[in-house]
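User: I'll paste a sequence; please echo it back and then give the predicted structure.

Assistant: Echoing your sequence first, then the prediction.
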Amino acid sequence: MKKPVTERTEWPGFYGANQGYVEELYELYLQDQNAVDPEMKAYFEQNSKKRMSANQDVNFPKSTAAYTSGNPAKIAAVLRYADYIRSNGHLSANIYPLQSGSLDTVLEGLEKWGLAEEDLNMVPVDLICPSAPPAVKTGKEAFEYLKKVYSSTIAYEFEHVNQLDEKEWLRNKVESGALIPQVEDERKIGLFERLAEVENFEKYLHRTFVGQKRFSIEGLDAMVPLLDEVIAGAVNNGVETINIGMAHRGRLNVLAHVLGKPYEMIFAEFQHAPNKELVPSEGSIGINFGWTGDVKYHLGIDRKIKSGTTANARLTLANNPSHLEFAGAVVEGFTRAAQDDRNLPGNAKYDPVKAMAILIHGDAAFPGQGIVAETLNLSRLHGFKTGGTVHVIANNTIGFTTESMDSRSTRYASDLAKGYEIPIIHVNADDPEACLMAARLAFEYRKTFGKDFLIDLIGYRRFGHNEMDEPMTTNPEMYKLVHNHPTVKELYGKKLVSQGVFTEEKRAEIEDKINSTLKAANEKVPKAEKEVKREPDIPEVVEMGIPRINTGVPAEILKKINSDLLKWPEGFNVFNKLAKILQRRQDAFAEDGKIDWGLAETLAFASILQEGTPVRLTGQDSERGTFAQRNLVLHDSNSGEQFSPLHTLPDARASFSIHNSPLSEAAVVGFEYGYNVFAPETLVLWEAQYGDFANAAQVLFDQFVAAGRAKWGQKSGLVMLLPHGYEGQGPEHSSGRVERFLTLAAENNWTVANLSSAAQYFHILRRQAKILKQESVRPLVLMTPKSLLRNPLVAADPTQLTEGSFEPIFEQPGLGSKPEQVERVVLCSGKVSIDIAEQLSGEDNDWLHVLRVEEIYPFPLNELKEILGRYPNLKEVVWVQEEPKNMGAWTFVEPRINEAAPKEIKVAYIGRRRRSSPAEGDPNTHKLEQARIVRDALTKTNRGGNDNGRN
């Protein structure tokens, strides 16, 4: 007779209630192998021998005889009920501070399961709850224990995590009691002190700076000790850099208590008093200042921290505008930059232990803003993962004046995370010890599996959206509850007094000391400046612009690079058609050889790597190039194995990383901007699939890339490659929206260029790499070509790469050599420059000169003045563009051209009329219009302008 088993034997790949279902199918299979479908039949044939072997020679306990001889249906119901508690206990949990008792009664009623209490006891504890503590003896006790674990002030959702090892790890952690903190009295007092610091700081601000906005943390005070716990766990486990992103709610408190920003600095900002002298002299705090500045609840900070014997760690709170969630992608970029070692050739060496990100979200913003989903999607991608982010939803159950019922279509603010299989904890912010449990589990999961974890910290908001709002006008029911609800400091203080941890006198002593510290800090603040400067001072080095830099590379170096790029691993099979195209590059440096756009770019990257500057390039199709022009990642046509020739350059002294990105603009632009800010020595490039796809990242351009240095002193050398040019491909595949970047152009904040030459591209990339470590560094916005990528007129002679530097204005060869005869100067930029060049005939063109304005911002005013001054008989200057008149560069350049031109000279426009859509949808119409623009530019009798006053 077969002996019973002592433990539950599981079918690999199945879990929970599904185990019972598979067990029933197996019984059918034993009776008739054809009674189950072929897939399950094969599965049982593969696994049943292993299962039978595991069941031999073991004794089943007497107390569980019912398991082998009792009612199988009852046993299955018991196990399903246990799994139901795990999956749905959160519905009955006490996780809402403003609501007493549980939300739901889903855990009540055994009769719903066809069970009585005695049925619970017929199943052993180790089947119901294998990780239960020893004190749990019976099946009924196991159920009571599970209810307590899954429906207290901390609730769990991780059934959506599909990896079995992760799910089992989480269950064991939760059900074993290992997370329950053994909080000694001294630690409890420390926790109370922290809560008192948080609350008393807010109250001091409220009393002292009446009516000023501060977006207080009150109602979510426990977020500070929660962050303390996560950070301590990280530092003690060797994390060297911790980057935090959050919006304005509670930011001042996090700055003060987590980042260590001195109280007096914060108080000075409220009083508009000078505060730069208040930075601690020991250098543990790093604060950057822009010349225009930002409001106090947007500012970031760096801090060096030390814990025990660990080396100094860097703690950063990222600057963040009011676009709540966009800093999250930037922080992820910070973190990956801190994890990558870029000092050696090949891909940057990624080490997730080096750095960690913490993102604090709003409960309305997390489901409401698409940037959150875009950023979450980066978390497991090869080029963008950061080894797991700890997410905290600062959940005050209201967004501005909008309550949850109007702000999301899901039960919880956190539900979006389920699609990314991120474990979720909901925790009552009024239970600070439960918050420590949540923090501990979050960090340990991140450490173990290198994946994201989310804590939904549920509290409330004590005041209105800001301290000037009256929330009773819009949310009276909620705020009646808030006004009658004690603070977490009061609740926890009473609990500790009742436990005998400290006395009321000791509690009062702690608070008096905190209040004295706050008062003393405020007394250190210097008096506010009487005279406020009307205009902020722009640093002189920024005003001066980029110096002229020689970016040529000796011919012998370029020839060797070109040869090395065509050395592929032995046995590596490049697709035959592509191999032939690449092999032609061998002739680029031969007599009459030409270097096209793609090769010029590769040579630029290679020479930059040889000089010790790392390069990182990402975009939706950047490995190959949207237009098959780059091919920097080759694929073996037989095995699919990948190889990049820039990884094996013998003379490279830095890393080269290139990654195809997800179909995202905002998150990836934010990520790359953050990467570049944190790794300023790295040439970081982001490439749009088509230029106007950058529309979807407009917030990042507006608030970070264009304005970050003026607001926060945050320097960036990010390069943005935006394919641009009118080729009859319709409205969404024509314009890179250069006008939007020019609208944002001021204070030498970035360079905007529209190039017409591969040599110019080579030189501007090398110039950008050379200024990365200089104070003159700034982002670079490039309108890059599509059809021109292989145009012979765009290709460069090798000497154009070996000599010279980037030229803001490029003069059309063959024109302008007889200054007295020049009557018209045509100014143009980008692709239309080549359209014009293609139509120039060998006829008498002495009356005409064409200037390509390659760098539109900063506008080359002095260079243009000098060139126009050469022509004494000049009658008109014409700006030619292919974009509609209300788009492109015309609006930006017109006043500057007028300033450069002699006073009596007419400045005219040739191009498309003003339109609401960027381009025609019909290719034939496009050709007619494009031909007219070029014809008007080259026709002597035309005096420019075709808009005729039309809107």
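Residues 1-9, 51-69 have pLDDT under 50 and may be disordered. DSSP finds 34 helices and 27 strands in the chain.
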